[in-house]
Write a structure and sequence with these properties.
By secondary structure, this protein is an alpha+beta fold. It contains 9 helices and 16 strands. The strands form 4 sheets. The protein has a 5-stranded antiparallel beta sheet, with helices on both faces. A hairpin with a 2-residue loop joins strand 15 and strand 16 (255-262). The protein is globular and about 55 Å long. Bound molecules: adenosine-5'-diphosphate and magnesium ion. Residues 115, 139, 141, 145-149, 151, 177-180, 183, 187, 205, 210-213, 248, 250, 259-260 line the site of adenosine-5'-diphosphate.
C-alpha cells in the first residue's frame, strides 16, 4: 500500500517508528509535512499539492497533527478523505477530540465516567461554577491545552477565583473540574488501536506536581488494567470515532474516569514502558481496514 504519514518532522520518534514499521511490512511509505501542503478546495476533483507536486495515489494517511495546527491539519486530512483516501483517524474525530469540552459532552451523553466538570463564560457565574464541581481544591483547564500546559490545581477557593479571572482576562476558554485527589498524581494511558486496548501504562507525576504528563517530568511504568478500565477506554475511543487513541483515565473512588482522549498519542513512552511494537499494530490495522474496504464513515462531511 502507499501510505502517507502527515507529520511535521520525520525525526520525531512516533513518525519514525510508523515509517519504519510500514517499510518493514512492505509498504510504500512517505512522510508529508502537512503544514506545507496546499489544496484546491473548490474543484469537483479535490487535490492536494506539496510545492508543485500533486499528491496522488495514496491508499491511506496516518495523521499526526500537532496541537498548534489542528485547524489546518484537519482540513488537509479532510481533503484526503474527499479524494477517497482513508485516514486512520478521520478529520471530524480529530477535531472533536481536540476540544476538551466537546469530547467530555459526547462522552457524558453515553454514560462514560468523568470527573465532575463545569463550563461557564460569564464572570458573574464563577462562584456557581466552583460550587458545581464541589468547591476547592479544584482543577482549572484551558480547553485546548496539551502536555499539561494550562492545567492548574487551585487549592483554595480564592486561588480558583484568581486563576479563572486571569484566564478570562486573556480571553481563554476554560473548564473547571473536580480534583481527583485519590489518583495520587497518577493516571493510566490506554492505547487503543482498532477498538482494542493494545497497551497500557501508568504515569506518575514527579514529587510536588499533580500532573503526570511525561513532558512535566512524570515517569511511566507498565500497569495491569481492570476489565472496567479496558471497556471504558475502548468505549471512549469509539464514541469519539477514533481508531487510534490514547485514552487517559484517573482511578477515582467512583471507578475509572476519563480525563481526555488523544488522537495522536505519542508512541515513545508507551513502547518503552511496555516493550510493545505499537507502530506495527497501527500499520496492521491499516492493512486490515483496507481489505475490508470500509471507507470513511463521514467522507469529509465535517
Ligand atoms: P493535557 O491535555 O495538558 O495533558 P490533562 O487534562 O490531561 O491535560 O491534564 C494533565 C494532567 O493533570 C493529567 O495527566 C493528570 O495527571 C492531571 N489531572 C488533570 N485533571 C485532573 C483531575 N480532575 N484530577 C486530578 N488530576 C488531574
Ligand atoms: Mg493529558
Amino acid at each position: 500500500m502507499k501510505i502517507a504519514i502527515l507529520s511535521r518532522n520525520k525525526k520525531l520518534y512516533s513518525t519514525n517508528a510508523l515509517y519504519e514499521a510500514g517499510l518493514k511490512r512492505g509498504h510504500d511509505m512517505r512522510v508529508i509535512d502537512y503544514v506545507r501542503c496546499h489544496m484546491e478546495i473548490t474543484s469537483m476533483r479535490p487535490s492536494i499539492y506539496l510545492g508543485s507536486e500533486k499528491l496522488d495515489g495514496f491508499d491511506a494517511v496516518i495523521p499526526r497533527i500537532g496541537a498548534t495546527y489542528t485547524h489546518f491539519g484537519c482540513a488537509v486530512v479532510r481533503q484526503f478523505e474527499m479524494m477517497g483516501v482513508s485516514s486512520v483517524n478521520e478529520s471530524v474525530a480529530i477535531s472533536r477530540s481536540r476540544d476538551k469540552l466537546r469530547s467530555l459532552q459526547l462522552l457524558a451523553r453515553k454514560g462514560i465516567g468523568l470527573p465532575v466538570t463545569g463550563f461557564a463564560h460569564d464572570p458573574r457565574t464563577t462562584d456557581a461554577l466552583i460550587d458545581q464541581v464541589g468547591g476547592a481544591p479544584l482543577v482549572i483547564k484551558l480547553l485546548e491545552g496539551t502536555q499539561g500546559v494550562g492545567v492548574v490545581l487551585a487549592e483554595t477557593r480564592q486561588a480558583a477565583e484568581s486563576v479563572i479571572e486571569a484566564f478570562r482576562g486573556l480571553n481563554a476558554n476554560i473548564l473547571a473540574q473536580e480534583y481527583i485527589k485519590e489518583a495520587g498524581g497518577a493516571d493510566i494511558r490506554c492505547l487503543v488501536v482498532g477498538g482494542k486496548v493494545v497497551a497500557a501504562m501508568k504515569r506518575q507525576s514527579k514529587e510536588g506536581e499533580f500532573r503526570s504528563n511525561l513532558h512535566r517530568g512524570g515517569t511511566a511504568s507498565v500497569v495491569k488494567i481492570t476489565p472496567e478500565e479496558r471497556s471504558t477506554a475502548t468505549r471512549a475511543a469509539n464514541i469519539l470515532g477514533l481508531n487510534v487513541a490514547g485514552v487517559d483515565l484517573l482511578r477515582s473512588n467512583h471507578g475509572p474516569v476519563v480525563m481526555e482522549v488523544n488522537s495522536s498519542p505519542g508512541l515513545e513512552g508507551i513502547e518503552t514502558a511496555t516493550g510493545k511494537d505499537i507502530a506495527k499494530m497501527i500499520i496492521e490495522f491499516i492493512e486490515k481496514s483496507g481489505k475490508e474496504k470500509k471507507g470513511t464513515r463521514t467522507k469529509g462531511k465535517g
